[in-house]
Design goal:
By secondary structure, the chain is α+β, with helices and mostly antiparallel strands. Helix content is about 20%, strand content about 45%. Strands 2-10-9-4-5-6 form a 6-stranded mixed beta sheet, with no helix packed on it. It has a 5-stranded antiparallel beta sheet with strand order 14-13-17-18-19, with no helix packed on it.
């Protein structure tokens, strides 16, 4: 079962392609890693300058370095250590990777040179964003922003690249999930959803007017009433078909009269 879960998380990581990095050289560092993705931790400047170190969590040893080589790596199948820059790369992050870690460095006599702690927080990245709009009776437009996945999501809005202003907003704010836009507001509306390991956004072209709110997705380029255009095209096609039938019947009649003349 654990192997199956690991495979699913690995595939999740490939789908997200999420990678974060963190400087763990300061005691008490707080690092965020994406569930199913990759985190790159800088534990030191250069491992060749350290005789031995042990990186462990509260329950077990994870990584041991001794005599300029990796002596032990509990998660070797999904991680790698680069001695030249002291970075430890963990792939396929799991919930169980979260927690407090301790890095203990020793000299050749076994004396502790330095002791650092690091807090690892694993978060699910935001996978997608959806915008839903609703036309209100006075021409305002209510827009809701929702996201799939993602721990502790935070929301932000822009219109044509600028933060929404009170002159444009009837209710809600730039950090709200739901906003209501006043009449006569139009442009490229973007809702961004982010947390400490990811950021995803959705953009739509919107336009509101005095008597009705109209939402135009990025695939629509104008506010023309396309239903009338479609009806006109259908009528034109029907007329052309009717003319074709009349011409065909006239031709058949003429051929018949010539045959029996």
């Amino acid at each position: 079962m654990e192997a199956v879960v690991g495979l699913l998380l690995m595939l999740l990581g490939l789908c997200h392609g999420v990678e974060t990095s963190c400087d763990g050289r300061q005691d008490g560092a707080q690092c965020y890693g994406p569930l199913g993705g990759t985190v790159v931790l800088q534990l030191m400047d250069d491992a060749s300058e350290i005789f031995r170190f042990i990186w462990s969590n509260k329950t077990r040893r994870i990584l041991t370095w001794r005599d300029n080589k990796t002596a032990f790596n509990r998660i070797e199948n999904r991680s790698s250590f680069t001695p030249s820059d002291g970075t430890f790369r963990i792939n396929d992050l799991r919930w169980t990777d979260g927690g407090e870690y301790t890095l203990a460095m020793f000299d050749s006599r076994g004396k502790t040179m330095k002791l650092l702690t690091l807090q690892m927080i694993v978060q699910a990245p935001v996978s997608s964003v959806r915008l839903v709009s609703e036309c209100l009776s006075q021409g305002e437009m209510k827009v809701s922003c929702s996201s799939e996945g993602g721990d502790s999501p935070q929301y932000s809005w822009t219109l044509d690249g600028h933060t929404l202003t009170d002159a444009q907003l009837l209710s809600g704010g730039n950090e709200s999930e739901d906003i209501t836009l006043k009449q006569d507001v139009s442009g490229q509306l973007v809702c961004s959803v982010s947390n400490n390991v990811s950021r995803v956004w959705r953009e739509e072209t919107i336009s509101t007017c005095g008597d009705c709110g109209i939402t135009i997705t990025e695939t629509v380029t104008s506010t023309v009433d396309h239903s009338l255009l479609i009806l006109g095209l259908r009528a034109a096609v029907a007329i052309l078909i009717l003319i074709g039938i009349v011409v065909y019947l006239a031709w058949k009649k003429k051929k018949y009269e010539e045959l029996y003349r």
